[in-house]
Amino acid sequence: MNRLIINLDVLRHNIEVIDGWMKEHDAGWTLVTKVLCGHSDTLAALQKIGVRSMADSRLSNLQTIERVNPDFESWYLRLPHMTALPRIVKLADVSLNSEIEIIKALNEEAKKIDKVHRIVIMIELGDLREGILPGTLVDFYQQIFELSHIDVLGIGANLGCLAGAVPNLDQVMQLVLYKELLELKFERPLPMISGGSSSILPLLLEGRIPEQINHFRIGESVFLGSDLVRGGLLKGLRGDAFTLETEIVEIKEKSLTAPSDTLTITPFENLDDTEYEPGQRGYRALVTMGQLDTEMGGLTPVNPAHKIVGASSDVSVIYLGDNPANLKLGDPVTFRPSYGALARLMLGPYIEKVVTPSIDEYSRTLDSSKHVELPPVVTEDIEDKLSTN
């Protein structure tokens, strides 16, 4: 039996800590839930905790969020695509954009249902993912800010998502200057700079983020506690929200090296770079987890004495050292997943997802205790814009 155990108390802790950081900076933030792959029990728990602004890159996931939490602000993180614009306007309150043609088409779709769709203009600052070139910003903004059913919330950027460049102060200061340029040029306020993702949190904690950066899109640091710049955990966050349990189906003392004349024909990457002495032996356990289930290289055994030494499609081999420590058939071996491994586990149909405590138990706990309340990020009244068109 393979189980992914989701600890709601840890998620609540991380959310409360990060929310405290945001309040100190006088900023709003949106919880990026895409790693959950639309898991309804966890999404319902986030609603119980008090989350009211969620972002995802899959429309089907936004639809699930809406079903379990009708009272929420929805952000669509993938750049809008032409074939899905009607669903995007219906399901998302806010989307990130970098193409004028798409924004104009969003405006037409929003007209059909008498809705104002909000957008953030994404600017390319070095991650080489989405974003307009800074030199085109004024002309770009001039073409869209008067669209009848589009409300430009502000500007934003993605940093550290694709190219892997560490966000720096110069990049975030560029966003501040671009905001000031647009406000002076067009004499209208831009209420938001959406400064980035979990990768920017170290700068925030160092007090190096300008106050004008007033919105963040945070996912991995909530779910895994990750410090994406220095590695490990951010101070005050926990990394045990997700625990993978796999079952031992074989345990034996074996040679740690294959015969010297063995050909390398495995279809999967080698996970063990340890050099063993010829004839060296140790205990190995086979567990019911393989490369079809997740990214095995992204799993870290909870017991530091254990090591993943190989994986096929359906089973993996765990080196237990010289002593199996009383482990026996049927016992679990536990792991912490990386972000990539977690996404595969949440998406996989072969993994049981267990929320603990249960939603009912957790609801009773929250009813009797103070809990965080994360309001929607966008509070401006847009009825005036509709009434004038």
Task: List strands and helices in order, with pairings.
Layout: E1 3-7, H1 8-25, E2 28-32, H2 40-49, E3 53-56, H3 59-68, E4 73-76, H4 85-91, E5 94-97, H5 100-112, E6 117-122, H6 137-144, E7 150-156, H7 169-186, E8 192-194, H8 201-205, E9 215-218, H9 220-224, E10 242-255, E11 281-287, E12 299-301, E13 307-311, E14 316-321, E15 332-337, H10 339-347, E16 352-356, H11 359-367, H12 383-387
Parallel strand pairs: 1-16, 2-3, 2-9, 3-4, 4-5, 5-6, 6-7, 7-8
Antiparallel strand pairs: 1-10, 10-11, 10-15, 11-14, 12-15, 13-14
Helix pairs in contact: 2-11, 4-5, 6-7
Overall spatial form: elongated
CATH architecture of the largest domain: Alpha-Beta Barrel
Helix percent reads: 25-40%
Measured between the Cα atoms of the first and last residue, the distance is 58 Å
Which terms would index this structure?
single chain, 389 residues, alpha/beta, TIM Barrel, Lyase, Ornithine Decarboxylase, Chain A, domain 1, 2 domains, eight-stranded mixed β-sheet, eight-stranded parallel β-sheet, 16 strands
Description:
- With 389 residues, the chain is an alpha/beta fold.
- The chain is built from 12 helices and 16 strands.
- The protein has helices at residues 8-25, 40-49, 59-68, 85-91, 100-112, 137-144, 169-186, 201-205, 220-224, 339-347, 359-367, 383-387; strands at residues 3-7, 28-32, 53-56, 73-76, 94-97, 117-122, 150-156, 192-194, 215-218, 242-255, 281-287, 299-301, 307-311, 316-321, 332-337, 352-356.
- The strands form 2 sheets. Strands 1, 10, 11, 12, 13, 14, 15 and 16 form an 8-stranded mixed beta sheet that branches. An 8-stranded parallel beta sheet has the order 8-7-6-5-4-3-2-9.
